Amino acid sequence: ARVHEHQFVVQAHKVKRLCKTHNTITVNGQFPGPTLEINNGDTLVVKVTNKARYNVTIHWHGIRQMRTGWADGPEFVTQCPIRPGGSYTYRFTIQGQEGTLWWHAHSSWLRATVYGALIIRPREGDPYPFPKPKRETPILLGEWWDANPIDVVREATRTGAAPNVSDAYTINGQPGDLYKCSSQDTTVVPIDSGETNLLRVINAALNQPLFFTVANHKLTVVGADASYLKPFTTNVLMLGPGQTTDVLITGDQPSSRYYMAARAYQSAQNAPFDNTTTTAILQYRSAKTATSIKTVMPPLPAYNDTNTVTAFSRKFRSLGRPEVPTEIDENLFFTVGLGLNKCPPNFRKRRCQGPNGTRFTSSMNNVSFVLPRNVSILQAHHLGVPGVFTADFPASPPVKFDYTGNVSRSLWQPVRGTKVYKLKYGSRVQVVLQDTSIFTPENHPIHLHGYDFYILAEGFGNFNPKKDTAKFNLVDPPLRNTVAVPVRGWAVIRFVADNPGAWIMHCHLDVHINWGLAMVFLVENGVGKLQSLEAPPADLPLC
Ligand code: C2O
């Protein structure tokens, strides 16, 4: 096993997109940021220096961080932010994970431009569980604003309204041929006739689940979220923000150029969204580069095609025989959803520009999560600082009703708070994640830090323990770090709390974090050193 050292300098850099030059926050002047390539068992040491004018932290999305919770990265959860001029070194070891993950800023909306791929190959000398691909290409799907993303979210926070939707989607940072001033820089992915390549697809978009497809080529899915899957073929992928999918693609079509394309899967109703399409070009190397060849455009599902999403997610099965906990110690039920807060008295009108003079909110079990300000939750827990959080996050919703019915519950007014749920080291945890249609039902990509979890089942309507338990897959459920909870539906996840620390679980639609769709599991130390959190690094940023 090797130790890989990297320097990340977070800094503004001129980036031109959609005809306009922006002072974009980047890592090392690159957009998207550098790709990190390591092997299972290796250690990553990344020194992050902040030369931007914003606070920043970096999160290693999907890395388990066994006993190294101080390196996880979400601001005010496991660390205070790295202030302008400051630095912090993240240090962690890959233990058993293989496939595609990514890294991104975990502070305000900086991750709109501060992100990159994190590729974990098998231990040196170990094979993939599929034929070795000739070439491997990260495909980072992103979202671009023709404005400073930080200003976009600040404005939304000030007005209580929904933020402006993005102006483009991107593939490896480029919008592609269908946008103004963009054709010249369209991402080109080479392929040779007869060869099989691995595409490592990552949805790094801020607020939008995306469909992805390649014209005329079958995609063979072999992994997701750095866990291998029983291979299956499909024409189209759907990835919620945060999710990754590894697919094999074979150059079995006439030598030419084919578009790969991504656009929105939009399940929320009556909500504006970016309805544009980003493209890259799959280019056969033997094809003439003459512009006279017409690039083949693939069909994409309709923006609201939930049936395609369901059919796709039902194909996910772990490779081999995973150890799924068959008994549970914690049986939790969390609602996830949006809502509208009444305008507080003494508020100016401009600050209540949500529907009918309200402010947007969102919550889990009617708690709208608020980050602490002066210390991180993990530091407070570790040092015993009182008054930072309360350990009363509810195990189930305080009021029960028809969560996915058509009733809009404007009366479901969340309480705001920094509430955590404590888990004993080693406890076996089940969480039912239930979408609600308060304001609008929506497919929420729920991401848990510090863990991978098994997705035992997904379904529509209200979860019904009597009949839905029979649908649980305890044999080969997929292991993931982000679950796209079906719109007007539910998903059931299980994990063993074997990693001490403070682990945020949140919707990976970033605006929903701003509105409070998050909670924190506080996992206590077990017996002995190997079950306990390591001591905090000496350079851990303080507030
Ligand atoms: Cu990729 Cu807390 O996120």
TrEMBL record:
Subcellular localization: Secreted, Extracellular space, Apoplast
Domain Plastocyanin-like per the UniProt entry, residue ranges: 10-124, 136-286, 392-525
Name of one Pfam family that matches: Cu-oxidase_3
Chain coiled-coil ranges: none
E.C. no: 1.10.3.2
Taxonomic superkingdom: Eukaryota
Keywords from the named record: Apoplast, Copper, Glycoprotein, Lignin degradation, Metal-binding, Oxidoreductase, Repeat, Secreted, Signal
Cofactors demanded by this protein: Cu cation
The reaction(s) this protein catalyses: 4 hydroquinone + O2 = 4 benzosemiquinone + 2 H2O
GO biological process annotation, one example: lignin catabolic process
Any one Gene Ontology molecular-function term assigned to this protein's record: copper ion binding
GO cellular component: apoplast
CDD domains documented for this protein: CuRO_1_LCC_plant (cd13849), CuRO_2_LCC_plant (cd13875), CuRO_3_LCC_plant (cd13897)
Free-text cofactor note: Binds 4 Cu cations per monomer.
Annotated family: Belongs to the multicopper oxidase family.
Biological role: Lignin degradation and detoxification of lignin-derived products.
Classification via NCBIfam families: laccase
Protein name stated in the entry: Laccase
